[in-house]
Design a protein that fits this description.
- The structure holds four protein chains of four kinds.
- By secondary structure, chain A is of the alpha/beta class.
- Chain A is 44% helix and 17% strand.
- In chain A, the strands form four sheets. In chain A, strands 2-1-3-4-5 form a five-stranded parallel β-sheet, sandwiched between helices.
- The longest helix of chain A has 20 residues.
- The relative contact order of chain A is 0.12.
- In chain D, helix 2 crosses helix 12, helix 3 packs antiparallel against helix 4 and helix 11 packs across helix 12.
- Chain D has a two-stranded antiparallel sheet with strand order 1-4. In chain D, strands 2-3 form a two-stranded antiparallel sheet.
- Classes of the chains: A alpha/beta, B mainly alpha, C alpha/beta, D mainly alpha.
Chain lengths: 380, 294, 250, 324
């Protein structure tokens, strides 16, 4: 507890010092919008931590082309109004050349009109497919589309000849966007959704929904949510003595989920970024180096496991860094260079942007992992 | 899977959750009945109970029982501090200012909890294992038995306290007419303080025994607090059987609502019931109509 | 003027009033007296619609007002004051009286918000009349002060001024002299007479016997929820039952 | 009458200040903040009519704000209605809803009223969240058009500033007028002593519902303007937290004070700017603010600070007198 406070004070001091020394060589200002507090803090907090860590590392290594990076982070609290205000401040007051974040699809959608009008590149860390479809001139994203995660699961189900499933999704932005994709893609894979249930983000018992699912003929359950809901679902499945295989989303691919669900987590299969299975990857995996590096670094800085949410911020920073290195630090140049990003192996996958594609990832950005012995196992 | 077994599971799940709501509702009823205040911060004591337990378990590596006792103790101390610092100094307290102060306190407690313990959710190990118990094909967890048992224990203790002890009777007198109570020599301020002590203790106790099921985090108190409030309104603000019935009914309706209507509107069900009761029968379902003497 | 016909009020199991019938003559000052718990305030609350009687009827003139809502009685000319002075503390003395003119004005939310011409004219009328009533009661010097800062005695008077603004036929006063010193009580007596002279009937519940005997034309005695006696002050003073109720049992 | 003249003068100065402010803020981000302050002022003034004048608490006002925003957003995006027309429909619909639920809700008092309005707010929030097909659900509704007057499109901060502030000023003027009318007095009388007001012929029940309706209409207008300014809305902006934020604005500014509501809205809109330094501490500051204001400055910041200033001036004067 004390340590945490100390770290807080220290990090504030560091930020202050950085701001002070920034006068030296004209620094490059990058803005960040993360939902550090509020209902989506599970996204915003690791993203902020990662972004700050990356900027420190980059500056330690001499900055970008000799120029230091300055990161200005504002908390959106997952509130569209605050996100828009903060984006305006970043653009008009702080005069940043690019923005990373916001963490959620809602915040991102709110901010898009602002950056489009101002002509500032935005690299969102949110997953919603509407962010980059249709393609918007100034908007990119690093988080893998939900569509890709759904495709991974359905692909696996098809292989296992499971055609009737029940879905249980949380009624927030993450869950509803997942639900949309689950329903949308089911037909394509010949999968039938037998029951379609939801639960509230603050719900603490899902036995009623699961009982209803048990009453149907589903052969598997797919649950779409972020902690702690899915952990409750896993426990409730066990409590009800249900034997159906349970699938989760990438929203829970962190050690926290295994800790919360306890024994009930065993055997659960989910799509995940490669970050949780970094050391199980084959040597020739292009991402392996970046992943191991990130995991180790994050552990060193924050004493907890880095997760793939933080990875979105890592990718965003590195993509912008690459763009500035190839071009210049003007917003327009950054945007043009971002669009030309090729084969950047980051945490979320290998990015390849183009004028038609500002999401940059394919379904192999996800791997399927299974929880075994309180750890992750790569499913091949 | 036959329908009757499914129905039985809904009922069992509903009752299990209902007992939780009832237990939380108790805390509201005790303060309301002694002071006429609805303590919007009641849910936070549920949170504090769970978080303190985790804290003593994980940080000091205490065994479960001492951790629980300490958690209740610390939550109660916070309850006392709350009454002394924010409720007692308030001059000519209107319902409006009390609502706002207790909301302020709830935000404050939540904020402090978030700063001290972080934003993560934590799991508490169940008191006696996680192996489900089968009852006629439906299942509950041993922890649910704990919840039922402790709820019953608390009602019994309440009944005895308020009906047979001098202090309990004095508290009831304060609730009925604080001016008259002070005339006969009852220290009303002490009674108000005592009601905060009891309700924060019960609130934290509720938080502790449900933590193994619901898990706990700094913001777990909001929804649980509101549900507890719905339970106590259905029960007519009684600190006895009414609230138990209210809680169980709410749990049942929610569970059946999920089963036979839609899970999306589960929380809406609770609040629609709340509104209907307030509109149609504000004295609660299980209470005979009060005299209208103003 | 005001007629109560067999009013009974039962709270839960407790009977507060039993078959109380009485009549108040127009342009009179009528006192309602009785020991504590006799049911005087309950009676007022029933007449003014704050309580609903268990049985019996209330007539104002020829009109049966038994089931009328409190707020509709002011328009019929029936108002009251309260035992523990219910002033609008956050408003000025003048504004307090202006509220009394609520039934004398019509402007709705729209015309108030947009200050339509009719509303401006009406506001002028309200302010003028309110000042008139402050002059009538001798409070005009306090007009701009906050009602909360008024001394208690003046508060009582302000409450009366406020009810006068309704231009009622009948005012019920609930212990108007409670908490007043002897000088203030004398002033109050003068004011009540002045009110009666302006054509308004007054009914008052009062414990100050000197005041009651001094100003009332007729007196009604309640005891334990029943009417014990009614008559002129002299008759009441000599009534055996009344004397024993006051001296004997209590 | 001088009081009324002073009132007019103050409003005139305030209006002038509002109108010329943008000239000092060209291209600044603060103009954008002022747009939101305008919207929040409108909401706070609307709530103040209910909370400050009539003394009736509402912990669900964000729902009316949200409903206004959603009706406007849905009508313009899905049915292609003109934003102005949508705004009017939103206002009327909100008013009708408030009028209907007003009767049963406002029969309740104190804590029960607080709880019922809170329940209403949560139910509306669930509806915004769950009717995905209509509202777009938790991930929001985007592509809402800007307001337009013939060829003038309100699509930048400066234009939105004038659009929103002119309407806000009207709402403020409306409320000031109301407070000095028979309706305003009757409402304040209800807040102080409902029973005494009723005895004087004030129909408290109807009047409370009327002002609840007016308050809901103002919230709907604010909501609609918000939707057309942001061009994106999501349920998260209309939850319980925002209802509390609105109550806080009114409390900070002072119950019944129109300029106070502006101050409260301004402080709460700008506060996060200052609290950013504190990172996660802002929630604590929030809670403390509510408690301390209610305990020590029940009249709001303006009157509280005036009292403190008077106290200090008094101290200095008395000290000066002693020295002399």
């Amino acid at each position: 507890m004390l340590k945490k406070m100390l770290r807080l004070i220290l990090s504030m001091a560091v930020v202050g010092l950085m701001a002070g020394s920034a006068f030296a060589a004209a620094p490059i200002k990058i803005g960040a919008l993360f939902s550090v507090s509020g209902p989506a803090s599970f996204l915003g907090e690791p993203e902020r931590n990662t972004a700050e860590m990356m900027v420190t590392e980059i500056n330690k290594a001499g900055g970008i082309k000799g120029q230091k990076l300055v990161l200005i982070v504002y908390d959106t609290q997952a509130d569209a109004t605050k996100a828009v205000q903060a984006a305006n401040k970043l653009i008009k007051d702080d005069k940043v050349v690019a923005i990373i974040g916001p963490s959620t699809t809602g915040d991102t959608m709110a901010v898009i009109p602002v950056v489009e009008k101002a002509g500032i590149p935005l690299v969102s860390c949110a997953a919603g497919i509407k962010i980059t479809e249709p393609t918007k001139k100034w908007v990119f994203k690093t988080a893998q589309n939900d569509a890709l995660a759904v495709a991974r699961i359905f692909d696996y189900l098809k292989k296992k000849k499971i055609s009737k499933i029940a879905i249980l999704t949380v009624s927030d932005g993450f869950g509803s966007s997942g639900r949309e994709q689950l329903v949308f893609q089911a037909g394509k894979f010949g999968i039938q959704i037998i029951s379609d249930e939801t639960y509230g983000p603050k719900d603490t018992d899902m036995t009623a929904q699961l009982t209803k699912i048990r009453g149907g003929a589903a052969q598997a359950i797919v649950c779409w949510g972020t902690n702690p809901g899915p952990a409750v679902v896993a426990r409730n499945v066990k409590q009800l003595g249900m034997k159906l295989p349970l699938f989760m989303s990438h929203g829970v691919s962190s050690m926290k989920f295994i800790e919360l669900a306890g024994d009930a987590a065993e055997g659960i299969i989910l799509p995940s970024g490669r970050v949780v299975v970094a050391n199980q990857l084959p040597k020739n995996d292009p991402q392996k180096k970046a992943l191991l590096n990130y995991v180790e670094n994050y552990k060193k800085h924050y004493n907890v496991e880095g997760d793939h949410f933080g990875g979105h911020a890592y990718d965003a920073i590195m993509l912008i860094k690459g763009a500035i290195e190839r071009g210049s630090d003007s917003p327009a140049a950054i945007r043009d260079q971002l669009e030309k990003t090729e084969k950047f192996a980051g945490i979320g996958g290998t990015f390849q942007y183009s004028p038609q594609d500002h999401a940059g990832l394919t379904s192999d950005a996800f791997v399927l992992v299974q929880i075994k012995n309180k750890g992750w196992t790569l499913l091949k | 899977m036959d329908n009757s077994r499914q129905l039985f599971q809904y009922i069992l799940s509903g009752l299990s959750n209902g007992a939780i709501y009832a237990l939380i509702g108790f805390g509201f009823a005790i303060i309301y009945n002694a002071t006429g205040i609805i303590n919007f911060a009641q849910g936070e004591f549920v949170m504090l109970g769970g978080m303190f337990t985790i804290f003593f378990l994980a940080f000091f590596h205490l065994p479960l029982l001492p951790a629980i006792i300490l958690a209740i103790l610390f939550s109660t101390i916070i309850g006392i501090a709350f009454e002394r610092l924010a409720i007692r100094p308030l001059k000519n307290a209107t319902p409006l200012s009390l609502v706002i102060i207790t909301i302020g306190a709830s935000i404050l407690l939540r904020g402090i909890a978030m700063l001290v313990w972080g934003k993560d959710t934590h799991a508490v190990t169940a008191f006696s294992g996680n192996d489900p118990l089968y009852i006629a094909g439906a299942t509950i967890l041993p922890q649910h038995i704990w919840i039922f048992a402790i709820t019953l224990l608390i009602i019994a203790a309440n009944k005895i306290f308020f009906n047979y002890s001098i202090v309990g009777k004095a508290m009831r007198a304060c609730a009925y007419n604080s001016q008259a109570a002070s005339l006969v020599g009852i220290n009303v301020k002490t009674m108000v303080l005592l009601s905060f002590v009891i309700s924060s203790a019960i609130g934290s106790m509720a938080g502790i025994i449900i933590a193994p099921l619901t898990m706990t985090s700094f913001d777990v108190g909001i929804m649980l607090g509101l549900k507890g409030f719905c339970a106590v309104i259905i029960g007519g603000m009684s600190s006895g059987l009414g609230t138990i019935m209210g809680g169980l009914l709410l749990g049942l309706l929610e569970s059946l609502g999920v089963g036979y209507i839609s899970a999306s509107y589960k929380d809406a069900i609770a609040f629609i019931i709340l509104l209907l009761i307030l509109f149609i029968r504000p004295e609660g379902l299980f209470r005979t109509k009060e005299t209208e003497r103003v | 003027m005001l007629r109560l016909d067999k009013i009974t009020k039962i709270f839960g199991g407790l009977t507060a009033l039993t078959d109380v019938s009485l009549e108040v003559r127009k342009d009179s000052i009528t006192g309602v007296i009785g020991p504590n718990g006799a049911g005087k305030t309950t009676l007022f609350n029933i007449v003014t619609g704050l309580y609903t009687q268990t049985s019996g009827d209330v007539y104002l003139g020829e009109k049966n007002i038994s089931r009328f809502a409190t707020e509709s009685l002011a328009a019929l000319g029936l108002v009251r004051t309260f035992q523990n002075v219910e002033l609008f503390g956050k408003m000025t003395v003048l504004e307090n009286v202006m509220v009394g003119l609520h039934t004398k004005s019509r402007s709705g939310i729209i015309s108030c918000a947009f200050k339509l011409p009719g509303q401006i004219k009406e506001e002028k009328m309200i302010a003028e009349k309110a000042r008139h009533w402050l002059e009538f009661t001798g409070l005009i010097a306090d007009a701009p002060n906050s009602a909360n800062n008024l001394p208690f005695g003046k508060g009582r008077i302000l409450e009366i001024a406020r009810t006068l603004a309704v231009e009622p036929q009948l005012i019920l006063m609930d212990e108007p002299a409670a908490g007043l010193n002897s000088q203030e009580t004398t002033q109050l007596a003068v004011l009540i007479r002045k009110i009666r002279e302006s054509g308004i009937t007054v009914v008052l519940v009062e414990h100050d016997m000197d005041l009651v005997m001094d100003i009332c034309d007729s007196i009604i005695v309640l005891n334990l929820g029943k009417k014990l006696a009614a008559g002129t002050p002299r008759e009441i003073q000599e009534n055996k039952a009344v004397i024993s109720a006051y001296l004997g049992d209590s | 009458m001088t009081k009324e003249k002073r009132e007019i003068l103050i409003f005139f100065i305030f209006t002038l200040a509002v109108l010329i402010t943008p000239f000092f803020l060209q291209g600044s981000y603060f103009l954008n903040v002022l747009v939101f302050i305008g919207i929040n002022t409108m909401l706070a003034v609307g709530l103040n009519l209910l909370l400050g004048y009539a003394g009736q608490i509402s912990l669900g006002h964000a729902a009316f704000f949200g409903l206004g925003a959603y009706i406007s957003g849905i009508l313009t995006t899905r049915f292609g209605l003109d934003p102005w027309f949508a705004l009017v429909i939103a206002a009327v619909a909100n008013g009708a809803l408030a009028f209907v639920i007003g009767f049963p809700i406002l029969k309740l008092k104190g804590h029960y009223l607080a709880m019922a309005t809170l329940g209403f707010g949560i139910i509306m929030f669930i509806i915004f969240n769950e009717t995905v097909a209509v509202t777009g659900g938790p991930s929001g509704l985007s592509g809402i058009p800007n307001i337009q007057i013939s060829s003038l499109i309100f699509d930048n901060d400066l234009r939105n500033y004038y659009l929103i502030w002119i309407i806000t000023l009207l709402v403020m003027l409306f409320s000031i007028n109301l407070s000095h009318s028979r309706i305003g007095r009757a409402l304040r009388a209800i807040a102080d002593s409902e029973v005494a007001a009723r005895v004087l012929g004030v129909n408290a029940r109807v009047l409370k519902v009327q002002i609840f309706t007016v308050s809901a209409v103002i919230s709907a207008i604010a909501g609609s303007l918000y939707a057309h300014t942001m061009t994106f809305i999501s349920p998260a902006s209309f939850g319980f937290n925002f209802s509390i934020e609105l109550v806080t604005m009114v409390i900070i500014g002072g119950l019944g004070s129109i300029y106070g509501s502006f101050l409260g809205a301004a402080i709460l809109t700008i506060l996060p700017e200052f609290l950013r330094v504190l990172r996660d501490f802002d929630i604590i500051v929030y809670g403390l603010l509510l408690i301390i204001m209610t305990m020590y400055m029940p009249g709001g910041l303006i009157s509280g600070l005036t009292r403190i200033a008077e106290f200090i001036v008094g101290k200095i004067k008395s000290r000066g007198a002693r020295h002399a």
